[in-house]
Amino acid sequence: MAQGDVTVFPHAIETLLEGSNCNFSSDTFNMGIIDNTAAPAATQTTPTWADFSANQVATGGTSYTGPFALTGLSASMVSDVYLLDFTNVTLSQDASGFTDGYFAILYNDTAADIALLSIDLGGPASLVAGDININFSSSPAAIWRIGVGTIT
Omega before 140 cis (within 30°)? Predict the structure, then answer.
């Protein structure tokens, strides 16, 4: 995997297709940062945050104190493609922060902490060395695209 690669867990797709356990208009979605002890894989069929939390990076300092709520949720259908997006995230440099961040796990905090996807941070990402930015795609705006249409 390379920095910025997104792995969508199969259960997340199933959740969307069934229309259960996930309400993009009212649920809270969180993101946690983990080390590389056990890399997330698309073969994990029903992952939750609990499957990754033991590998969470250190929560010392003030910039990353544990999983945080994502903001700016946007879920829409454009040209037969479902788009899911959030506001970009910046974790500010912190001398007491972690030095071993490899993956960001996005999960639904409202619906049993179902893990939706992971993002490769190109680790080891270090808050001690500088800011960590997780920028969701801007053209078109979406971290996740599902559908049969074409977006330009």
Answer: yes
Is the model's pLDDT at 148 over the cut of 50? no
Domain ranges of the chain: 6-147
Beta bridge partners of 9: none
- List strand residue ranges (DSSP E) for 52-136, in order: 68-69, 74-78, 81-85, 89-91, 101-108, 114-125, 132-134
Cis omega (within 30 of 0) for bond into 124: yes
Task: Identify the pLDDT of residue 43.
Answer: 87
Q: Is residue 142 pLDDT above 70, yes or no? A: no
Give the global pTM: 0.87
**Whose CA is closest to 43, among 3, 8, 5?**
8
